[in-house]
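sorry for the late reply, my laptop died twice this morning and i had to redo everyting from scratch. anyway the thing you sent over, i finally got around to it. pasting the sequence first so we're on the same page, its 469 residues, then the predicted structure underneath. double check i copied it right bc i was rushing
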Amino acid sequence: MEKMIFNASNILLMQARKLMAAIALMLLTTLGVSGQTGTLPVMHIETENHKPITSKTVYINGTYYIVDQQNPDMNVGSQSNPLPLEIRGRGHSSWKGVKKPYKLKLGEKASLLGMNKHKHWALLRFYEPTVVGMQLGNIMGMDWTPSTRPVEVVLNGEFQGLYLLTETNRIGKQRLNIYEQPNWNEDPSTIPYGWLVEVDNYIETNQIRIRENSKWTLQVTYHSPDSLSLEQLSWLTEEFKAMNAAIYDEDKVHSTWEQKIDVDAMARYFIIQEVLDNSDGFHGSFYLHKDRGDEARWVAGPLWDLSCNMREKTDYTFLMKTSYSFAPHWIGELIKDEEFCQAVRRAWHAFYPQQVQPWMDYIDEHLLPCSQAYEQEKTMWNYTNQATLEQRTALLKSILEDNIEWFNAHLPGDTNSITVVNTVRQPVVKVEYVNLAGMRSSRPWTGVNIVVNTLADGTIQTDKTVIRQ
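ok and here's the structure:
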């Protein structure tokens, strides 16, 4: 009897092992050894001695290479010849999550996946509003907007899921191309120029703080220069005190903040936050930069850390309630100024309606190819929301279209006082895509496309885009 029980136990154990082996084989066959689908570029990173990445301030050495099965010309390095990099953690609340974001510093400048050559990059969690919002920044004509590319990441041989490889906000010829003043500058003639700062919702060491109003403090983090002399620190503090006082001047007709801040750029920035319904827009990650020149003013941007609340829009975003407390810096005062409102209306008429459909097409073209990788992402990180990327994309587009129509019906300012120059726009009635062979289609081709927009008055507008699969 004992022998029979022993034999039965062995049989059950063997069957269990065979079942587990079959499941493992199926997973390996379906997903590949590391789990990546290969439908997107795969970035392989290996830290020195497989050291874990635990710090947001201290880089550790490593190597990387990128394999793009769909576009081998985009490959960077190789498994046998990886390239050097340094890597650390990044982010605030995102760093507290299970899936970590990372900051990368390459050993040498490189053009990654068609983006401009640089050393500094970020790996952010895949988030649809980041992709669509950055493109909206391009459409609205921001000075410079970071590019992103979806990638699958393998870290120290372990699949990490779907990320966005992203250019970072920096001054430079291949990024925000403005004059950059040096650290520890003491020259009063150059201190007012070449700045990149962020109105921040976190307390940092490289930061000035002034009282904005009776409710909240304005925290301005200086990113470039990032180490200030006493002269630089004093100038920056007084500059923001003066701007803040001008913005809060009760006499909006004769206020002088427009002498310090680019009104049109701020209007475009405001529209982007409204269309996305991004309540963090004037709360944090609110970047400003200033070039060199006698007439140089502070310019809103570049964009960063975009989100979409995915709610029914019933008011301007900064007036709507959220599940968390936030301080909408400046915008509550700016919208009372008729010059600002006119700038908003001018920028809006340049966007609506002719740019809406091309933007919606862009969203499909750049999100839907990530569908298979997104299914892997959901499984790996145990997402509670099991909607497919196709479903999420359709919902996001619907929300954005509703936001656009709401805003178009509630443009700020006096409709009788605005003077719009050359803003008679014709709606797009037909969109075609032409590939390099001259073939036309209503859907985009893989690779280089000439986008042909036919307007209601019969005129044609063309643009160039590259579609990745």
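Confidence is low (pLDDT under 50) at residues 1-9, 20-34, 417-425.
thats about all i looked at so far, will dig more tmrw
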